[in-house]
From TrEMBL:
It comes from Deinococcus koreensis. InterPro entries: TRAP_TAXI. SUPFAM superfamilies: Periplasmic binding protein-like II. It comes from the Bacteria. This is TRAP transporter substrate-binding protein. The lineage of its organism: Bacteria, Thermotogati, Deinococcota, Deinococci, Deinococcales. It holds the Pfam family NMT1_3. Signal peptide: none annotated.
Length: 288
């Protein structure tokens, strides 16, 4: 009799697992690349985007178990491991190695003055060395990059933490800071809309080996040719999950992205940063 009663009751089905992904600004490179993968990989249906302020918040969310994946800069991971000595970083894995993100250093155009004797003086920020003793606004993962570059390049300056890029640019325009440092994949849509600021070169030296690489910026709207800078590799990171449901989703998502790289690079509308992605350089232990 019990079997007959149970026969009419549907068996409970396992609920699908959904994973949260920390990206960044809705207009940023991380968000765009996450959406791009969603176009070519059906496995993205199990992933939910969470907008954030960038790499620094992303890694904190990942380490505190509030998201399952996070787009982060490699130097932010290194800082968590080597400077903060956060033991939780040992559990971080690279699901997908991604593009290089360039350091964008903005400043108001330098002011050139000539005295009555014909001698000219320049005030403002025209080179990285000019930042000595000045104020540099940054937010998100760029805060870490600003600290590392100051130390590695031996140019001491004050780092002003701001909420986001709008706050940083407002502070620059108001004269509250002397420069703005932002780590973002080129070409950044919001940078292409800027005017009234200069891109300041960032020198690449041997002191930056291992984390940063040499790069160049090109933004015709800022009236500059090729501007030297440095770049840091970004990565879609996760934790070393062992549960079958999560592992299955992550590995299938990873495999799909790997197999559809050509589509990500060539399909119209995909972010141009895909064209430099190889998926072959792992800046962190690989998830597998």
């Amino acid at each position: 009799m019990l079997c007959l009663l149970l026969a009419g009751v549907p068996l409970a089905q396992a609920q699908p697992v959904f994973l949260n992904v920390a990206t960044g600004s809705k207009t940023g490179t991380y968000s765009a690349m996450f959406r791009n993968i969603g176009v070519v990989c059906t496995q993205s249906a199990y992933l939910k985007e969470r907008g954030t302020s960038g790499s620094l918040e992303n890694i904190d969310l990942l380490l505190s178990n509030e998201v399952s994946l996070a787009f982060v800069q490699s130097d932010v991971l290194k800082a968590k491991e080597q400077i903060d000595q956060d033991a939780r970083v040992a559990n971080i894995r690279a699901l997908l190695p991604l593009h290089n993100e360039e350091v964008h250093l903005f400043a108001r155009p330098p002011v050139v003055k000539k005295n009555i004797f014909g001698k000219t003086t320049t005030t403002g920020v025209a080179t990285f060395a000019d930042l000595k003793g000045k104020r540099v606004a940054a937010w998100g993962g760029s805060l870490i990059t600003a600290k590392v570059l100051s130390a590695k390049l031996a140019v001491p300056y004050s780092i002003v933490s701001v909420k986001d890029r709008d706050a940083a640019l407002a502070a620059l325009n108001a004269g509250q800071v002397d420069a703005v440092l932002a780590v973002v994949g080129q070409p950044a849509a919001w940078v292409k809309e800027l005017s009234g600021v200069n891109l300041v070169p960032v020198p690449y030296t041997a002191a930056l080996n291992g984390v940063y690489s040499s790069a160049k910026l090109l933004y015709p709207n800022l009236g500059a040719g090729s501007v030297p800078t440095v770049a840091v590799q970004s990565v879609l990171a996760t934790r070393d999950f062992k549960t079958p449901e999560r592992k299955n989703i992550l590995l299938k998502y990873q495999q799909c992205a790997l197999s559809r790289l050509v589509n990500l690079q060539e399909d119209e509308g995909m972010h141009p940063k895909w064209q430099e992605v190889t998926f072959k350089t792992w800046p962190w232990p690989q998830y597998k």
